[in-house]
Amino acid sequence: MIRRDDPAWCTPAGLPQELLTFSGVARDGLAVGSPGKAGVLDLALAPRAGSTRVVRQYQRAPLHIYRPIYLDPGRPDMAFVFLQQQGDGIVQGDRHRVDVDCAPGSAVHVTTQASTKVFAARDDFATQLVNLRVGAGAVLEYLPDPVVPFRGSRLFQRTSLSAAEDATVILGEVLLPGRIAHDEVHAYDLYWAETEAHDLDGTLLFTDSVRLRPGHVGDPRSAGVLGGYDVLATLYVVCSRMSPPDLVALLREALAEAPDVLAGATELPAGCGAAVRMLGHTSAAVHAAMHTAWNRARIALLGAPAPDLRKG
């Protein structure tokens, strides 16, 4: 049996060969200051006395959380969990794994304390595996802050969702082009993100991939990828509370109020919800559009507007 402090436990299965050409020799990473940390965060949350509480928690540096907070007056039962990371960001050799299990009837919002910075890699790459399980009637919002890939960075990220038919999940991700103030605009080596969703029986609902490799096939500057835009975002709304056509219409109406982004909404396969892809020139414009879409979906599905996350 693989131990949770073993990098193999934290490394996504079936990594693409293109990524493995960057080496990929996982390190123990226990020594202070050494690269290659096997970071683990394993959480289970369940309803307790009218609110959602953490009932199981295992964390291994550099990943950790503090106690959930309850900041939404419209959903006082919802636990807001802020994922934090020791150090400045993800470095080569890092293998991070986050598991969040939401019991039936729970209400959970997971976000990060700040943007995820990905540092340059010379001999390896970094991976992040996120497994989300959402039980019957539960609500999960997983909306981390943007990923910022630095010059020469290499990141593979896989987000796997397993959700009950009557669960409600709002899942988002944002990619910035790099440190623009340092003239780093799509100067990373490789960014590869996969999102997949299944029902609780394991039946595939949908899968989505983003592969960006500057200077190669998949160059973000090419017309068929990002074109003249620099910021990319995706929002998935998985639910049965509203029909997919109505949900798409709702999201399109919301995004009509965000003229500074190029956006499109579509139904997800298997009738499980809707998805939005957004392109923008600035992080501020895309952040505003994401918040608008999240807020509109939240009001329709949860009966409460998006709260202030108090991030400053």
UniProtKB/TrEMBL annotation:
Keyword Kinase: no
Keywords: Chaperone, Cytoplasm, Nickel insertion
Location of the protein in the cell: Cytoplasm
Highest taxon of the lineage: Bacteria
InterPro entries in alphabetical order: UreD
Keyword Oxidoreductase: no
Matching HAMAP family: UreD (MF_01384)
Subunit structure of this chain's protein: UreD, UreF and UreG form a complex that acts as a GTP-hydrolysis-dependent molecular chaperone, activating the urease apoprotein by helping to assemble the nickel containing metallocenter of UreC. The UreE protein probably delivers the nickel.
Similarity comment: family membership: Belongs to the UreD family.
Function: Required for maturation of urease via the functional incorporation of the urease nickel metallocenter.
Protein name: Urease accessory protein UreD
